Amino acid sequence: MNLYSNLYSMKDIAEEIGKDKSNVYRYIKKNNIAHTDVKERTLLFNATQKNSIVKGMASNPNDDVAQRSQHAQHNEYHSETDNNTDQIIAAMQDNIKNLKEQNALLAKQLESKDKQLDEAQKLIDQQQQLNLSTQRLLTQQNEPQEVKQQTQTKQKSTAQAQQSEENSNDQKKASKKGFFKRLFDN
Questions:
Q1: In a 10 Å sphere around its CB, with 0-12 CB exposed, 13-18 middle and 19+ buried, how is residue 63 labelled?
Q2: Of all helices (H) and strands (E), which one includes residue 5?
Q3: Are 38 and 26 in contact (CB under 8 A)?
Q4: Within a 13 Å sphere around the CA of 143, how many CA atoms are in the beta-carbon half?
Q5: Of 49, 119, 141, 161, which has the fewest Cβ atoms less than 10 A away?
Q6: Do residues 19 and 61 touch, judged by C-beta distance below 8 A?
């Protein structure tokens, strides 16, 4: 048995009931069974505690089976969860791919619209220039008659002044010719 009188280790209890030490440890933890002493990091139990553990583990021989079944269910659940997670990730990756394709398409459409806007702006500029030219022509054609008459009168006056100046110059030239002619004739 044990070097300590009337104290038993988990290993002693496991050997007595023919189970693994880890099973005894789980049973003790699960049922909150306190130990009596600790020697060199080994938990020690008195006879009453040992008998309670042996009796409890002997009366529940299905505990190991139940634990294995529970463990299998736990693994199956995690396997399903992992499978569902993989499906969710795959679906999200498909969504990301679709969104990237839509984004590329929208970027191309936006670029096309930018070009159309630039062309429309050029056409508007040209139209504005044409409108301005047309407005100038209409303004000139529709000037009030007085302005036209004043312009014509100024032009006539200028022409008459030039004509009379030319006539005056011609007369002066003629007089000078006549004077010199008379002078030389004498």
A1: middle
A2: none
A3: no
A4: 12
A5: 141
A6: no
Angle 26-32-38 from CA coordinates, rounded to 5°: 80
Q: Which residue has the tokens 């011609």?
A: 170
Tell me the C-alpha to C-alpha distance, in Å, between residue 161 and each of 45, 63, 149, 155, 158.
Answer: 144, 136, 18, 10, 5
Average pLDDT of the chain, as a whole number = 82
Pairing of strands 7-9, 42-46: antiparallel
Please name the residue ranges forming H helices in 18-144.
21-30, 47-59, 63-141
Lateral strand order in the sheet of 42-46 = 7-9, 42-46, 37-39
**Which neighbouring-strand residues pair with 42?**
39
**Range from 91-95, 123-127, 147-151, 168-172 that averages highest in pLDDT:** 123-127
Residue 180: band (very low, low, confident or very high) from pLDDT cuts 50, 70, 90? confident
* pTM exceeding the 0.85 threshold for the entire prediction: no
Of 108, 90, 86, 87, the closest CA to residue 98 belongs to: 90
Q: Is the pLDDT reported for residue 78 higher than 50?
A: yes
Distance CA(11)–CA(25), nearest Å, equals 9
